[in-house]
């Protein structure tokens, strides 16, 4: 089963075909057709409205450890939150792909997502998706308007820029939660359960898979996300992730930790006892 949802605009029926590279693409022709015999490709618009900055999450990004906040700083935080929410245009897109397990030339595990050219190397993502029959690939962003405001603030007011950045980090996580909930609701209709999100750059899953996520989701034209050198994306306040779908009930297993994270030694969140996962 291959499904697609996008928050980038009105719903359009689509059909899946192949381009010259073998990557699936959408054709807005009012029909649905089988994709390699693996199911159907569908699309629905999802309005991202009412997303709010989680202030507790924002303070965590700022390194707050419960100390009293002075009234002047509290007012600046309020202003940064309001500015972030006003200048953001949250959007997301997701698709599901059947999972096929394999190994690379060195015998290391590789997950392949049927209907795409995307392969996920590494033991950590393989363990995270253990038992999954399908995988949700998702992308979320606050949009270029948020990016432009962040750059403007960085040039004129370092303190406000830091507050604005923390607010954006918290807000894009809220949008990612909304995206996950949307994918989970669709999965439940088919009797499937979902695991937690796992993003590129975590554990041994390289950031280099992010451009492939942008490509298979059409996230460049749908939600304005552009890959850059080193596997990063613009806008900076964006999230890409994978989420496993499982048949029937799944035992609660939380594999998240700082142990395998490549940023472990330099991560300020870990040192403060407030790791990035929730």
N- to C-terminal separation? 29 Å
Number of strands: 11
Estimate the helix proportion, in percent. 25-40%
Helix/strand/pairing class, anyone? alpha+beta
Q: Per DSSP, what share of the residues sits in E-state strands of 2 or more residues? A: 15-25%
Main β-sheet description: 7 strands, antiparallel
Per CATH, the architecture is 3-Layer(aba) Sandwich
Account of the protein in words:
The chain has 278 residues and is an alpha+beta fold. The protein has one domain: NADH Oxidase (3-Layer(aba) Sandwich). 33% of the residues lie in helices and 22% in strands. It has eight helices and eleven strands. The strands form three sheets. Strands 1, 4, 5, 6, 7, 8 and 11 form a seven-stranded antiparallel sheet that branches. A two-stranded antiparallel sheet has the order 2-3. A hairpin with a 5-residue loop joins β2 (15-18) and β3 (24-27). α1 crosses α5 (158-189). The model is unreliable at 8-45 (pLDDT under 50).
List the helices and strands and how they pair.
Layout: E1 4-6, E2 15-18, E3 24-27, H1 55-61, H2 71-87, E4 91-103, E5 109-113, E6 119-121, H3 123-128, E7 134-141, H4 144-156, H5 158-189, E8 192-198, H6 210-217, H7 219-223, E9 226-227, E10 233-234, E11 238-247, H8 268-271
Antiparallel strand pairs: 1-4, 2-3, 4-5, 4-7, 5-6, 7-11, 8-11, 9-10
